[in-house]
Amino acid sequence: MFRIVEKRLLSENVTLYEVEAPRVARRHRAGQFVMVRPHAGSERIPLTIADVDREGVRISVSARSAYDLYLSRTLKHAKLLRVEGIDASYEQFRKDGLEVLAGLKPRLVSDAEKLPGSRVLDGQVTGVQQAVGVPKKHESAAKFTREFVEEIKRSGLVAKTIEKHGVKGVTVAP
After folding, report:
1. In the prediction, which pLDDT does 82 show?
2. Domain definitions of the chain by residue range
3. Cα distance between residue 71 and residue 121, in whole Å
4. Phi-psi region of 52 (alpha: psi -120 to 50; beta: other; left: phi over 0)
5. What is the 3 state secondary structure string of 63-110?
6. How are beta strands 58-62 and 100-101 bridged, if at all?
7. Cα separations (Å) of 87 from 4, 17, 21, 82, 90?
8. Please, are residues 61 and 82 in contact by the beta-carbon 8 Å criterion?
9. Fewest CB within 10 angstroms: 70, 88, 115, 135, which?
10. Is the model more confident about 30 or about 87?
11. Between 148 and 66, residue with greater pLDDT
């Protein structure tokens, strides 16, 4: 049987369970699903496994990028192979047959289209947050900026611009 390592209430209807399941962990591959049945009368719930932090996994990454810094602190088993620049990390991944390419989602999506059999894992490691700011003392400028940003989102201009330029893996903020 499996051992529950941690159980934490995240919100009223959501509980995080960390489960020790060595047989499942040994056999998993990125993109596979584990079927969970919380209790005998419940439906089966699919959960994705996208954990690449294991021995023998090599990850190509652009040196000193945000995701390099995050992965450097987080990974315990996989090996980061750093190169200078995003194009070089893709080439290293492709040429050396590495298991994982770390990068920003829009670029990963376009790279995956060039590599039959590859896929972009769900979720994200890091994200580039875009923002517009105005000093508080400029109240009328702040009000105008806030209204302008909401209008270009509401009108669909931001979505149309993302589509026009073929940026994949990006959505308009709520």
Report:
1. 95
2. 3-49, 58-113, 130-174
3. 15
4. alpha
5. CCCHHHHHHHHHCCCCEEEEECCHHHHHHHHHHHCCCEECCCHHHHHH
6. parallel
7. 42, 38, 38, 12, 5
8. yes
9. 135
10. 87
11. 148
Instruction: Output the pLDDT for position 92.
Output: 93
pLDDT value at position 47?
Answer: 44
Model confidence pTM above 0.70: no
Within its chain, how far is the Cα of 84 from the centroid?
Answer: 22
* Cα–Cα distance for residue pair 56/26, rounded to 1 Å: 13
Name the token pair of 61.
């990454």
| 15-42 as b/e: b if 16+ CB within 10 A | eeeeeeeeeeeeebeeeeeeeeeeeeee
Beta-carbon contacts of 51 under 8 Å, excluding residues fewer than 6 positions away, are 25, 28, 30
Residue with tokens 């060039």: 114
> How many angstroms separate the most distant Cα atoms in the chain?
62
CA distance 79 to 82: 10
32 pLDDT more than 70? no
Q: Decide: residue 46, CB within 10 A, 0-12 exposed, 13-18 middle, 19+ buried.
A: exposed
Q: Which of 14-28, 50-64, 102-116 has the lowest mean pLDDT?
A: 14-28
